[in-house]
């Protein structure tokens, strides 16, 4: 007996999407609030409170973000084979909440970072891999669901620096870290409440009509995804500098004064998620119109264009830093940088996540999504290494180097267009 679709377009909806997407959206929003709240403070906390050298702080920042995206590789397998996606989300969220509260105590700093990374391993691949189960075969809403989900990431990312960053800067770093922990608890409670709107999980053991998944049967798909992951690794070497060296430049190289008010440095971290929320609806409408006209762009081309746009954002920052000759630059240039940067990001990251989830073999959804986070792991580690160069060159040259890294990523992604079309049926008809 064949399995029935887990969801269909006729099911009750919220905002035109399955109700379960709202539950996953809100759970992810608060988890991202906790992550970005802690991230907005981390490099400042290490350099200003723990008095670590810039190079050491940048490396720890990169190593932490790398570990946070390495543990999902193991966590995805555990979720698929042992725990199930729902239980993995609950356990992972609980561990992460404990880690965020540990950040409020200075002696537990490294233990807290490790605890958050551990919990993230179970949580991160298990939540977005449930999106596919909300839609029946051929449901057209599925292709845009990941961009909707990505907005949830950025609502949390927008609120986090404003709340956690302000508490950390003005009232004490530990208050900011504590607020991040509260956000994680909020996400866990929403998920527990909303499980009634999620479809039942498929059985984790093999069934007569669904034979065990063999790696050999999907070799070409896996090789294509490895190529995408390597390209995204290069891209994130530049992309991840936003919370690292770019944040340091916002503190020392930016004129943050407005009519006698000094804009808190952590507030600039809210620009990127705010722009994601503003840009996503018109971008989705544009993609939908192009798809209706049969002119939808293939995933590889879309991601390559996005990497070129991100490169342009860094070249702009390089030109601003060079023209100001070591003086503090006007903060409006920084706003323009984030506008260009965010547009490029929207073409790359949601597209890549959706590609990995869409091409996942049966019963390996969390594992395949975890492979996407492997690219974030390696990219974050490389970003930490790149960040150590900040103290050894001037900002203009450093930002120009980041632009060059993004261009290399664009070339790699563009070269994958034909291989992706060979394994992705939805990409074959794209021009």
Automatic annotation (TrEMBL):
PROSITE patterns: MFS, PTR2_1, PTR2_2. Residues 20-421 form the Major facilitator superfamily (MFS) profile domain. The chain crosses the membrane at residues 59-79, 109-127, 148-168, 174-194, 222-239, 259-284, 304-324, 330-357, 369-390, 396-413. It holds the Pfam family PTR2. It is a multi-pass membrane protein. It is found in: Cell membrane; Membrane. Keywords: Cell membrane, Membrane, Peptide transport, Protein transport, Transmembrane, Transmembrane helix, Transport. Belongs to the major facilitator superfamily. Proton-dependent oligopeptide transporter (POT/PTR) (TC 2.A.17) family. NCBIfam families: yjdL_sub1_fam. This is Peptide MFS transporter. It comes from Sphingomonas rustica.
């Amino acid at each position: 007996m064949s399995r029935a679709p887990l969801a269909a377009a006729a099911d009750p909806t919220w905002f035109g999407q399955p109700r379960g997407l709202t539950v996953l959206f809100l759970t992810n929003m608060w988890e991202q609030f906790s992550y970005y709240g802690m991230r907005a403070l981390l490099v400042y906390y290490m350099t200003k409170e723990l008095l670590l050298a810039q190079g050491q702080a940048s490396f720890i920042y990169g190593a932490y973000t790398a570990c946070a995206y390495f543990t999902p590789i193991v966590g995805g397998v555990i979720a698929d084979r042992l725990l199930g996606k729902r239980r993995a989300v609950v356990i992972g969220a609980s561990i992460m909440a404990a880690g965020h509260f540990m950040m409020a105590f200075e002696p537990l700093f490294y233990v807290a970072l490790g605890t958050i990374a551990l919990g993230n391993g179970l949580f991160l691949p298990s939540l977005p891999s449930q999106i596919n189960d909300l839609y029946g075969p051929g449901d057209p809403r599925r292709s845009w669901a990941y961009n909707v989900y990505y907005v949830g990431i950025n609502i949390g990312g927008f609120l986090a620096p404003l709340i956690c960053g302000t508490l950390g800067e003005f009232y004490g770093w530990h208050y900011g870290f504590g607020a991040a922990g509260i956000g994680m608890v909020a996400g866990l409670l929403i998920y527990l409440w909303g499980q009634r709107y999620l479809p039942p999980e498929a059985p984790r053991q093999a069934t007569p009509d669904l034979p065990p998944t063999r790696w050999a049967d999907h070799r070409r798909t896996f090789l294509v995804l490895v190529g995408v992951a390597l390209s995204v690794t290069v891209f994130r070497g530049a992309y991840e500098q936003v919370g690292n060296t770019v944040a340091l430049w916002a503190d020392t190289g930016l004129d943050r004064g407005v009519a006698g008010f000094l804009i808190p440095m952590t507030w600039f971290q809210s620009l990127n998620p705010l722009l994601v929320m503003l840009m996503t609806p018109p971008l989705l409408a544009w993609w939908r119109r192009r798809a209706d006209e049969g002119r939808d762009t293939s995933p590889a081309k879309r991601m390559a264009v996005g990497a070129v746009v991100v490169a342009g954002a860094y070249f702009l920052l390089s030109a601003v830093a060079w023209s100001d000759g070591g003086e503090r630059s006007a903060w409006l240039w920084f706003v323009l940088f984030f506008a260009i940067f965010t547009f490029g990001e929207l073409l790359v990251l949601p597209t890549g996540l959706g590609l990995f989830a869409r091409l996942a073999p049966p019963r390996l959804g969390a594992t395949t999504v975890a492979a996407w986070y492997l690219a974030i792991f390696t990219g974050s580690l490389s970003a930490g290494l790149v960040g150590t160069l900040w103290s050894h060159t001037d900002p203009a040259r450093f930002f120009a180097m980041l632009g060059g890294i993004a261009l290399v990523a664009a070339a790699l992604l563009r070269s994958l267009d034909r291989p992706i079309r060979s394994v992705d049926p939805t990409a074959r008809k794209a021009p």
